[in-house]
Amino acid sequence: MVTVGGGRCHVLAAVHDHPVEEGPALLDRLRGAPDHGSHRLYADAGVHVDPQRRRVGWWLTAARAHGRDVAARWPGWTVEFWEDRWTEHVRAAGGRFAPPVPDRAAAPADVRGEALERWSGPRADARARLVAAHPRMSVGQGFAPAVSARQAADARAVIEAAHGAAARP
Question: 60 and 18 in contact (C-beta within 8 Å)?
Fold first, then answer.
């Protein structure tokens, strides 16, 4: 989810690294890309670039070890890491990014369901398969790692325990 200045909105696939990591080259890449106008659904990550003020704000809902290193990729710009505060992007985007307001009552069950789906069973390393099949293609880090059946079962047990603990007063 990328918004630029006062008028552009781009919805990008989540297969590469976070777009903010491209630095100002992101603006060049998006110059000819389709403008989606606005985005009204949830997103896992986003960036707002204000070229006039030379300001960048970005966020994501997953853990990222090198999140603080992004400012070095935008020399001469003010870069803010909003952590998981997507509402900062909503404010900065001037109506172009407006996901639905979360239903707080349904959130625990929704999170449980999504977590159980993610850890439903073993999976192969999708990124490694892509790299092997297309060695000259640039493949980002936005893929979940391989998971064994035992790891998936352990994760599901932790999810159920956490959901049960959260439901208790």
Answer: yes
Strands 78-81 and 55-60: parallel
Summarize pLDDT for 40-59 with one digit per residue, the tens.
Answer: 998 989 999 999 999 999 99
Do 48 and 122 fall into the same domain?
no
Centroid of chain to Cα 129: 22
With beta carbons less than 8 A apart as the criterion, state whether 40 and 12 touch. no
Q: Where are the alpha helices (DSSP H) in the chain?
A: 25-31, 86-92, 107-118, 126-133, 149-167
Domain that holds residue 75: 2-92
Please give the tally of structural domains in the chain. Answer: 2
Structure tokens at 95: 């109506």
The pLDDT assigned to 91 comes to 96
Global confidence as pTM: 0.70
